[in-house]
Amino acid sequence: MTDTGIEIGFGVELGARIGDLGTEVNRLRREIRHLRDMPVSARIGASQIADANGNASIVIGGPAVGRQWEVRGIRIGGVDPTVSVAGKGYVYIGGGALTVTTLDWIDEATSLPLPATYGAGEVLLHERELLYVRIVGGTSGLPYVATASVTDYDLERLRAEEAL
């Protein structure tokens, strides 16, 4: 009889602890989901060496599916931001192909380097869009660099906030 009482007591205590563990796991899942949905600020960039004609196409990047970027700043120039480099820089937002149209054109620099800043909501990239830069009339063989300061948002969370 004593053995049976010990087994029942142990089983009840173990069951309670497993229940607490399940509650904690669910709490952690909610916290991780909340953190994933929070906006994240980042600085991203890429570089490209100008071709024989002094032209370069630099793909900075774009948001993942289900995400949206708000671009707050773009920098274009050579490796050293304090040194002027030849060429003009054109900033575009477009689909996957690097085709240039006036509809995709958002900014330009008639001289480099370009330090550009944008206001809230002024430059948005939606899922499957890319931010890229075209250098025209640059120096052949010179590396050109483009960076962007972006805030990455979860679209589902944005839509839920807009519905309130």
Please compute the radius of gyration using only Cα atoms. 26 Å
Compute the average pLDDT.
Answer: 84
Helix content: 25-40%
Uncertain residue segments: none
Count every beta strand, where a strand is a DSSP E run of 2 or more residues: 9
* Residues in β-strands, percent: 35-45%
Can you tag this structure with a few keywords?
alpha+beta, five-stranded antiparallel beta sheet, 2 helices, 164 residues, four-stranded antiparallel beta sheet, 9 strands
Overview of this protein structure:
This protein has 164 residues and is of the alpha+beta class. 27% of the residues lie in helices and 39% in strands. The protein has two helices and nine strands. It starts with a helix and ends with a helix.
Brief synopsis:
The protein has 164 residues and is of the alpha+beta class.
Q: How do the strands and helices of this protein lay out in sequence?
A:
Layout: H1 2-37, E1 40-49, E2 56-61, E3 67-77, E4 88-94, E5 105-109, E6 114-117, E7 124-125, E8 130-136, E9 143-154, H2 155-163
